[in-house]
Amino acid sequence: MPIDQKRINGPEGSLPYQIFGKNRNRAFEERYTDVFEANGKRKCGRKDNESRKYFMKLGVVSTAKGSAYLELGNTKVIVSVFDPREIPKQNKFRELGELYCDFKFSPFACTHRKNPQTDAEERSLAAALNKALQPVVCRHLFPNFQIDIFANVLEDDGSVLAAVITAAGLALSDATIAMFDVVTASTVAVFGDRIYLDPTLAEEKICLEGGKNGNHGLITMTKLQTLDQTSDIRQAGKITLNRMKEACKVLNESCNEIAPVVQQMLVSKVQKHMGEIDLEEEDDNTDQEKDELDCSSVSQISINAEK
Question: pTM of the predicted model, to two decimals?
């Protein structure tokens, strides 16, 4: 594979520092006790159906049409959306527009350093992001055009796909792209008889590995709030149908709780924009009044001069 000469790459003979850590060659039971208690409760103090705190901000990328920054605990993502453009290298006319999604991890986002080239995990997450957003965007309004969506993960501490999907919905709204509804997403981890909402990266690794347990894995759901429809469900691991139904109920409730926060962010953005428009109109009216006063004073001076 060619090496990017413009980047400062580590020596070819270097070793990752993880192999010298305490977690090297530890048994599954030992790693499980670092994350969960013996009775299955989280050691971080959160309940099974409790999510981490959200932080959202719009318009963080000045060069993009719309952008959003989202924090979910220690998970931090930025999503940028650009104006629709013609589909490159396309000869046939398409009635529905397309979405181009790019999903990238920053080199420092994970424990292991990420290469600048896109790997299989990033391509898989980009395809999942595209599949989740296609039913949300009104693609029939821009035929033969595509919208570029770029997601960058600054720090990965679990539930990264759900965070990116929620941030992408905010960025699309900030870019004034027509959408059918507000989109939200949430993730649960299943381990045995317990369902953990919004798992961290350590919890995800334990639940994906599973050990000797039967039910184990991750489920991510994307939902349209007002329409009460599910646009995509992504599942990894081995989960029975009954456990899947219980997990979907938890995900549905979580998405319903996130939606008012997203709606409030969009309302605040509109109110701020309307306030800026009102200030500009007041300034224009003030300047117009000053010009009228100046004109009247000049005309009065000319009349006095003629007398």
Answer: 0.82
Burial class of residue 36 in the structure, from the number of CB atoms within 10 Å of its CB (0-12 exposed, 13-18 middle, 19+ buried): buried
Query: Are 102 and 148 a contacting pair, CB within 8 Å?
Result: yes
Question: Taking a C-beta distance cutoff of 8 angstroms, is the pair 223, 230 a contact?
Answer: yes
Residue 125 is encoded by which pair of tokens? 């997450």
CB 160 within 8 A of CB 203: no
For the sheet with 194-197, list strands across it. Answer: 194-197, 183-191, 216-224, 229-238
∠ CA 270-103-143, rounded to 5°: 65
Structure tokens of 294?
A: 């100046």
Residue matched to tokens 């989280």 = 42
CA 80 – CA 167 distance, rounded (Å): 9
Q: What is the pLDDT along the chain (307 residues), one digit of tens a residue?
A: 455 566 666 565 666 666 666 666 677 777 778 888 888 888 888 888 888 999 999 989 988 899 999 999 899 999 999 988 888 877 788 888 899 999 999 888 887 777 777 788 889 999 999 999 999 999 889 888 899 999 999 998 888 999 999 999 999 999 989 999 999 999 999 988 888 999 998 888 888 887 666 788 899 999 998 888 999 999 988 888 898 999 999 999 999 999 999 988 888 888 887 877 877 777 666 666 666 666 665 555 555 555 5
Contact 177, 88 (CB under 8 A): no
Instruction: Please state, in angstroms and rounded to a whole number, the distance separating the CA atoms of residues 222 and 8.
Output: 38
